[in-house]
Amino acid sequence: MNIIKQLLPIKSGFGGAKNHCRASLSSLFHSSPATTVEVHSPEQEVVIALGSNVGDRLNNFNKALKLINNSGIHITRHGCLYETAPAYVTEQPRFLNSAVRAATKLGPNELLGALKKIEKDMGRTAGVRYGPRPIDLDILFYGKYRVHSDILTVPHEKIWERPFVMAPLIDLLGSDVDNDTVACWHSSATNSAGLFKSWDNLGGESLMGKEELIRVLPIGKSFLHWAEKTYVMGILNLTPDSFSDGGKFQSVEAAVSQVRSMISEGADIVDIGAQSTRPMASRLSPQEELDRLIPVLEAVVDMPEMDGKFISVDTFYSQVASEAVRNGAHLVNDVSAGQLDPSMYKVVADLEVPYIGMHMRGDPCTMQSNENLQYGDVCKEVASELYSQIRDAELSGIPAWRIITDPGIGFAKRTEHNLDILMGLPNIRSEIAKRSLALSHAPMLIGPSRKKFLGEICSRPDATDRDPATIASVTAGVMGGANIVRVHNVRGNVDAVRLCDAMLKRRRSIV
């Protein structure tokens, strides 16, 4: 078989990338006696689709990602996670679908062989085509090249007809084209305007939330459908010096009573913090934090009222995060987005739980310094800095589908900055989308509850008098795209988000 017929560069008509999509084959490939094609240098950027609908689908994904990374295929980006209706053979369980971008020196047939071995090792056997499977791994793109052989066709020929493939593929891109290889992928699309237009022609974002295609965030043994419902996170501070309720819930009995109250009022998540992050708060050691946290966490986990609810641990220490998850916490809420503990990303990646990364400059002692309060366009700068941090988290092994973003209202922000953020949540998403659509789609959390800027605006020096202003700020945030709200007063804010959700649902129905 002639090598040039087997592997040809994609012809580009997208974004002025025509010249970049032509590559010399002679420097990249050689032919073995069996006429296979091997790639030696440089690394090629590839896209691999994942699907599973047999057994523990999420565990299948987690295992597959590890095996991919251990097979000479370095994952660099993750799409969102989708729960989808089966296609072609419809009488089978629902699928989880996603996709990853990766770098590899494996040739196309070597790559295919590595993926088929992973499928086999995970229990996939020959069966009905398009039928049930524990894991399905397909090569969507291989560098800038088209591959045509008896066993492999790339780009994958069915990309353009499958929303469950196109959606996570689009997630792997930014609205800005970041390199020549991506430009070539766009040029391969059925529409001359590129992948984005092909996705729009298939239905695009209008398909989201329907039975066939739902973005989900895995948490515990459940999935959050955050686009359909705003989740309320109730705050439980175990500290003596928190700005709003310091010292109220230090005993296990008082903490349990407060959790029971928040759950009865409609909280979906309880966020437990044993370290104050108010301005100028003194820092506890990880062990001191654990000594406060674990007795309460153990008691809360055993509460029958927590069935179907989730527990978040508010910490910037990886040791505390690890112990909390081991004792029943479902997600990690890190106000520093990994900046105060270099081990945090790797630890959370291994824990396989959702990770909330919040924007903050400095630490609680320095965040309100003049230096850390200097912004030009606050939404643009917060988006850029937060993206850099959650991108590092993703590169450390936390998939985009387990990341929640928080713009950090009240942290290294003046009053005007907090107002700009509340009004500018769509701008923050669009700035992140320039570099990663997956991370721009991540659930967004806001935490304006009882913050100082509300007191300044409303002349309420006592934090407990700021609940009406909190409800107003939560309403503005949810209408601007926030998916999770972190609050002290659960009852009033549950009503606010229910009204917001009803208005948003009504808006979608008439568009």
TrEMBL record:
<dbReference type="GO" id="GO:0005524">
    <property type="term" value="F:ATP binding"/>
</dbReference>
<dbReference type="InterPro" id="IPR000489">
    <property type="entry name" value="Pterin-binding_dom"/>
</dbReference>
<dbReference type="GO" id="GO:0046872">
    <property type="term" value="F:metal ion binding"/>
</dbReference>
<keyword id="KW-0289">Folate biosynthesis</keyword>
<keyword id="KW-0460">Magnesium</keyword>
<comment type="similarity">
    <text>In the C-terminal section; belongs to the DHPS family.</text>
</comment>
<keyword id="KW-0067">ATP-binding</keyword>
<keyword id="KW-0479">Metal-binding</keyword>
<keyword id="KW-0511">Multifunctional enzyme</keyword>
<dbReference type="GO" id="GO:0046654">
    <property type="term" value="P:tetrahydrofolate biosynthetic process"/>
</dbReference>
<feature type="domain" description="Pterin-binding">
    <location>
        <begin position="230"/>
        <end position="498"/>
    </location>
</feature>
<dbReference type="GO" id="GO:0004156">
    <property type="term" value="F:dihydropteroate synthase activity"/>
</dbReference>
<keyword id="KW-0418">Kinase</keyword>
<dbReference type="InterPro" id="IPR011005">
    <property type="entry name" value="Dihydropteroate_synth-like_sf"/>
</dbReference>
<dbReference type="InterPro" id="IPR000550">
    <property type="entry name" value="Hppk"/>
</dbReference>
<dbReference type="Pfam" id="PF01288">
    <property type="entry name" value="HPPK"/>
</dbReference>
<keyword id="KW-0547">Nucleotide-binding</keyword>
<protein>
    <recommendedName>
        <fullName>Pterin-binding domain-containing protein</fullName>
    </recommendedName>
</protein>
<comment type="pathway">
    <text>Cofactor biosynthesis; tetrahydrofolate biosynthesis; 7,8-dihydrofolate from 2-amino-4-hydroxy-6-hydroxymethyl-7,8-dihydropteridine diphosphate and 4-aminobenzoate: step 1/2.</text>
</comment>
<keyword id="KW-0808">Transferase</keyword>
<dbReference type="Pfam" id="PF00809">
    <property type="entry name" value="Pterin_bind"/>
</dbReference>
<dbReference type="GO" id="GO:0046656">
    <property type="term" value="P:folic acid biosynthetic process"/>
</dbReference>
<dbReference type="GO" id="GO:0016301">
    <property type="term" value="F:kinase activity"/>
</dbReference>
<dbReference type="InterPro" id="IPR035907">
    <property type="entry name" value="Hppk_sf"/>
</dbReference>
<dbReference type="GO" id="GO:0003848">
    <property type="term" value="F:2-amino-4-hydroxy-6-hydroxymethyldihydropteridine diphosphokinase activity"/>
</dbReference>
<comment type="pathway">
    <text>Cofactor biosynthesis; tetrahydrofolate biosynthesis; 2-amino-4-hydroxy-6-hydroxymethyl-7,8-dihydropteridine diphosphate from 7,8-dihydroneopterin triphosphate: step 4/4.</text>
</comment>
<dbReference type="InterPro" id="IPR045031">
    <property type="entry name" value="DHP_synth-like"/>
</dbReference>
<dbReference type="InterPro" id="IPR006390">
    <property type="entry name" value="DHP_synth_dom"/>
</dbReference>
